Amino acid sequence: MKDHWNTIYTQSSEEKLGWYETDLTPTLYLLEKAELLKEARVLIAGAGSTTLVDELLSQSYTNILAIDISEAALNKLQERIGKESDNVQFIVDDLTNPVMLSEIGLVDLWIDRAVLHFFTEQTDQVTYFNLIRSGIKKGGFTLLAEYNQEGAIKCAGLPVQRYSVEMLQENLGGEFILIDSFDHIFTMPSGDIRPYIYTLFKKQ
Ligand SMILES: C[S@@+](CC[C@H](N)C(=O)[O-])C[C@H]1O[C@@H](n2cnc3c(N)ncnc32)[C@H](O)[C@@H]1O
Fold first, then answer.
1. Separation of 183 CA from ligand 1 center, angstroms?
2. Is residue 111 part of a domain?
3. Has residue 186 been placed in a domain?
4. Looking at ligand 1, which atom is closest to the CA of residue 51?
5. Which residues 6+ apart lie within 8 Å of 45 measured at CB?
6. What is the Cα Rg of the chain in Å?
7. Domain that holds residue 101
8. CA 47 to ligand 1 centroid distance, Å
């Protein structure tokens, strides 16, 4: 997987990636609902070279953690944001076989857009949901945005697990309360569309 993703990020320009976003409205709408302090620890799982980091920095967030299996992706991200990278911790790790992540401490918000849905093996799903559940402070949040039940069956050449709100709730467990959810149609740089489910859960 590491090689797969490193190859993608090495061979493609960021703007051509199928998941490249210029409009972060659905994420920002849910982020506002979490009413976080600017010093809050915001973890972006499978961050890739996401423009969400630039946006959070422009909103004066100072404690961002960008995790990805691909070093190439995080290098691109770090180069792009330049000196602002002091406010971002870059961590290369595998969310389904975490090593570094056990040492980062609890976070206020765990964001996952288009990452969880790549974990099609049940053992990987269980590992990752445990990581989310145990990695968030009490009163903290998780923002999960994945292909919905009408979504595509593949992304980046890999099969995906499509989700509903109920499936996400079941995997997170009763400790997490649904704050909001909605469907969102994402238009890829190619013009194709991808239906997502966006959710925000709060840990009690
Ligand atoms: C479709 S991209 C989404 C990137 C970013 N979340 C966004 O919305 O722009 C999926 C990302 O997940 C990362 N990824 C895939 N499997 C991973 C794993 N097991 N551990 C950590 N990151 C992973 C990939 O390297 C890639 O950056």
1. 21
2. yes
3. no
4. 9
5. 67, 95, 110, 111, 112, 115, 116, 132
6. 16
7. 2-13+25-119+126-181
8. 6
Q: From residue 160, how far is each of 45, 90, 154 by CA, in Å?
A: 17, 26, 5
Protein residue whose Cα sits closest to atom 9 of ligand 1: 50
Q: In the block, which residue shows the tokens 């090593």?
A: 99
For the domain that residue 140 is a member of, what is the CATH number?
3.40.50.150
Per-residue confidence in pLDDT tens, the chain, 204 aa: 999 999 999 999 999 999 999 999 999 999 999 999 999 999 999 999 999 999 999 999 999 999 999 999 999 999 999 999 999 999 999 999 999 998 899 999 999 999 999 999 999 999 999 999 999 999 999 999 999 999 889 999 999 999 999 999 999 999 999 999 999 999 999 999 999 999 999 999
Q: Is the pTM of this model over 0.85?
A: yes
Residue for token pair 């923002």: 143
Q: Is residue 166 part of a domain?
A: yes
Calculate how far, in angstroms, residue 138's C-alpha sits from the geometric centre of ligand 1.
Answer: 26
Give me the number of domains the chain comprises.
Answer: 1
- Domain assignment present for residue 174? The answer is yes
